[in-house]
Amino acid sequence: MTNEKYRRPFTFKSGQTLKNRFVMAPMTTKMSFYDGVITEDEKRYYQMRSKEVGAVITAAANVSENGKGWEGELGVHDDKHIAGLSELASSIKVNGTKAILQLYHGGRMTHASVLKGMQPVAPSSVKALRPDSEMPRGLEEEEIVQIIDDFKGAAIRAAKAGFDGVELHGANTYLIQQFFSPHSNRRSDKWGGSRDKRFRFIDELVDSVTAAVEEITTDPFIVGYRFSPEEIEDPGIRFNDTLYLIEQLCQKPLDYLHVSLRHYDQVSQSKDYKDQPILKYLHEQINGRVPLISVGDIRTGEDAEKALKNSELAAVGRVLLSDPNWINKVMEDKEDMIRYDVTEEERDLLALTNGVWGFMQGMMPERLK
Ligand SMILES: Cc1cc2nc3c(=O)[nH]c(=O)nc-3n(C[C@H](O)[C@H](O)[C@H](O)COP(=O)(O)O)c2cc1C
Q: Which CDD domains match (predicted)?
């Protein structure tokens, strides 16, 4: 079986080539030191899961001190992080795997306890609809400009550390998404109000990051963007807002778009878009202008084939936690050898320390717990 789509290399617009169509999905490890510096455990975790995959997108790395989302989070908000990040990039790049750092700001989805007593910040002073959420402080205009600058600074640090690219984490309810969402963004200045205005932060962010890396890198450097297609909040992002977002992002010099889905076959909540999976609508809307990364419960080669009908690259997350050699087993038709279960005793062998183990518990399908 040599014709499977996932075996073929893929070249981004910027010129970087992935050796196959698989990408390791960004997964928070909670393994970093208190100040965001990488640990030996974390390097071991990535070393184990790189090599076979086309690219690794790292766990979310925090770009601003006031954006830290949780303890053990990777940091990229200070030059002191460059040395450790450089070791991380090298350990991922063994065997030609590309290293992409995910850039993140938590916005209202964090806690004063994580921010050493500071109140979380957000586009507006509106609490998230989560049981443990805290009332954020609405950002001042200069602070918004500063955060865009922080993302830019973080991208430059990633390039200096030897990463092949960065992914802007515009998904999963964090700050970038909060600017686009009518639930979290109630501003009436130029950063909020109409949908066009709620897009302004993303617009300026993407332009600022792509221009900065263009300026400082001579080698091809990947800039990707991750988004969540819908929100449950009312008001909230609806699928037609996402089609608008895609339309705007297709006009930017981005190397890829990466949708965040629980299942690659997931259907929209919106009654107007129920005829086919979200992924297919997105792929049709993009129409080849920018490569799309699919994700969500891809557990077999057959799943990957199906997801790749409506995307150029497929991201896999949890299966790489339970089986770091999942890619080779799929590529070499040895799927019967894939490990889908992790026992407490195997945690050390799989480099799954307390943080990631705890985080996994809420996110693994029942049979993987
Ligand atoms: C332990 C864990 C941590 C995660 N951390 C992140 C993250 O830091 N950034 C992000 O964009 N998504 C994160 N996700 C979501 C994954 O990238 C992915 O979209 C999700 O797990 C679905 O893919 P899968 O079914 O292949 O695991 C995380 C998921 C898990 C299980």
A: OYE_like_4_FMN
